[in-house]
Amino acid sequence: MNFKKAFSFSKIASTIAVGAFVAVLSGCASAPQKDAGDRTMLETDIDVSLDRFYDEATNARQIVQTAQGVLICPTITKAGFVFGGEGGTCAMQINGRSVEYYRISAFKAGLLAGAEKYSLLLIFNDAKALAEFRKGNRNWQIGGNFSAAVGKKGAHGGFDTKTMGATTTVFVYGQKGLMGDISVDGSTFKKLVD
Length: 194
Prior knowledge:
31% of the residues lie in helices and 39% in strands. It is of the alpha+beta class. The protein has one domain. Strands 1, 2, 3, 4, 5 and 6 form a 6-stranded mixed β-sheet that branches. A hairpin with a 2-residue loop joins strand 1 and strand 2 (97-124). It is globular and about 40 Å long.
């Protein structure tokens, strides 16, 4: 009898997890470069997200202004129970102007439960790393074929500049919600093309 209850619970949990994963990723289905309304909404979200980032630390604005390129993911939604997923749309900005768009997604499994939204900035400090990331139409996976240093706040209210010596630095900020996992490892970036 207990076996049937355990089986029923796992079946329900799996169904909820798959539903959450599909809901998260389906919210990111349209390519913004094809739909002017989506593009305008994304650009507005990017401006708001950058303002939030600038409020995070005293040197945040300088970090963005001196970067070769910045991949801005204004809203990444993550949800799951045992199994989960995350997704969002990002814009690559060079000299403060969006030049192309990307999708971020990930599938997660393990001890996770809940839902949250957060923002992510991927700072390219090196022109060669930026060119390699933008070249072609391939997937880039953090912790797989792509690595980035994690930007952390220092004791004086600014981000630690030691990570700025890396070719790329990732900043996660603006978390809202409750989720038992905040890892960006396994997140995949895919360029959106017309």
